[in-house]
């Protein structure tokens, strides 16, 4: 398979051209012939013009690539090496939603041929590829994994907004349905990954490795969030405690914050789901998720108490929230915990305005029924800086006081600023 792909006798197809699939497709298209497929025809038309709908990839990175962007499933019949990079979200009950993944598997079932390969990159629970996805392909195609086609799992390691640790500079885990599949998959990915390839002993191990990467981070942040609640009651700053503890060589520096997005705030629920299916109810993972999910409520309650301490009635107050994307310097608003914070404040009848230089107003309105303001006013009672976009980093107390009324309150959730201004009440996690 590798030699035929290298000689462009066979094509690679990437199914799902979001923040994961598009960078992979473009990177492969530097070396091989690629078909980039997405069910959203509007997104596909933008990519044909060299525009990344996720605003992550510059136009010049589309140039000179051997790639066909399409929303036509029939075009996938030209491919022989299928990579699935569709979203794996959770529903409102925090239950894994496999519909995008199963839909992609159905599409592959209609186009796969004997000798083809299917590799899943979407984050799932261990066993999902072999127990949920591959059977769909087999049922529709009439082919069987092993004798008829090969399969593998290679977890995505894309870090949105990171221009340094790009896809080629991060070690890639690969796995295969048998030894031959593993070697071929490793060779193909090895052509674009300069950091190196790690061959996992099984598909389940590769799936598990991915899901615990983000679960571990989730747990570490939840510990810091719980510490921030404790230290707030003690009147000491969490960041100062972490800086002091960080002087020891084996202390890991994690920081408190709102944990949203499509990875850290979602992936642990996949592991929880599978674990419960197997009869084990995880305690540590669930506790960490509970703490992180409740952080918007904690911050909202804190702000209301600060308003009251300054003699302000929350129902008469106006608050500006700066930043609604799930992390700094990206436009992605999926699973934004800032939106949860805004709605918590609204429960107290606080008037809230939201601004964000990175987010699209139409997306925010559609996803959260919230309106982004482009022009901020000068009459806020408090300001919450929720995301540390580069655009915010040079602000100081003079700026914040200029947009607030008397007794101004600043909540700096990312601890961007050092405040020594006695006229500004300052609080951080």
């Amino acid at each position: 398979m590798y030699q035929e792909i290298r000689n462009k006798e066979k094509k690679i197809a990437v199914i799902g051209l979001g923040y994961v699939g598009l960078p992979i497709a473009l990177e492969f298209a530097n070396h091989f012939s690629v078909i980039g497929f997405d069910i959203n025809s509007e997104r596909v038309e933008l990519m044909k013009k060299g525009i990344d709908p996720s605003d992550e990839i510059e136009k010049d990175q589309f140039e000179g690539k051997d790639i066909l962007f399409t929303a036509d499933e029939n075009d996938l019949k030209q491919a022989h090496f299928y990579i699935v990079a569709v979203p794996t979200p959770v529903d409102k009950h925090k239950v894994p939603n496999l519909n995008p993944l199963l839909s992609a598997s159905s599409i592959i079932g209609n186009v796969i041929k004997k000798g083809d390969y299917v590799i899943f990159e979407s984050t799932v629970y261990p066993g999902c590829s072999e127990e949920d996805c591959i059977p769909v392909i087999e049922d529709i195609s009439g082919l069987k994994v092993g004798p008829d086609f090969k399969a593998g799992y290679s977890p995505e390691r894309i870090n949105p907004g990171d221009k340094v640790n790009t896809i080629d500079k991060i070690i890639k885990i690969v796995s295969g349905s048998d030894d031959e599949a593993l070697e071929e998959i490793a060779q193909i990915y090895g052509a674009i990954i300069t950091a190196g390839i790690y061959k996992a002993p099984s598909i389940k191990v590769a799936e598990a490795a991915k899901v615990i990467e983000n679960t571990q981070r989730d747990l570490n942040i939840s510990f810091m969030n719980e510490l921030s609640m404790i230290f707030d009651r003690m009147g000491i700053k969490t960041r100062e405690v972490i800086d002091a503890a960080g002087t020891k060589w084996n202390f890991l520096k994690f920081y408190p914050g709102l944990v949203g997005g499509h990875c850290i705030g979602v992936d642990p629920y996949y592991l929880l789901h599978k674990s419960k299916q197997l009869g084990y109810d995880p305690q540590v993972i669930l506790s960490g998720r509970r703490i992180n999910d409740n952080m918007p409520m904690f911050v909202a309650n804190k702000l209301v108490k600060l308003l009251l301490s300054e003699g302000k009635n929350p129902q008469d107050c106006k608050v500006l929230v700066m930043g609604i994307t799930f992390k700094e310097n990206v436009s992605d608003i999926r699973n934004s915990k800032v939106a949860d914070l805004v709605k918590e404040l609204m429960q107290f009848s606080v008037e809230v305005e939201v601004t964000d230089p990175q987010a699209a107003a139409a997306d925010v309105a559609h996803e959260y029924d919230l309106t982004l303001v482009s022009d901020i006013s000068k009459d806020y009672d408090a300001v919450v800086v929720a995301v540390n976009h580069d655009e915010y980093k040079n602000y100081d107390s003079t700026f914040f006081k200029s947009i607030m009324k008397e007794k101004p309150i600043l909540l700096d959730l990312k601890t961007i600023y050092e405040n020594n201004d006695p006229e500004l009440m300052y609080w951080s996690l």
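The chain has a mean pLDDT of 94. The first strand starts at residue 11 and ends at 15.
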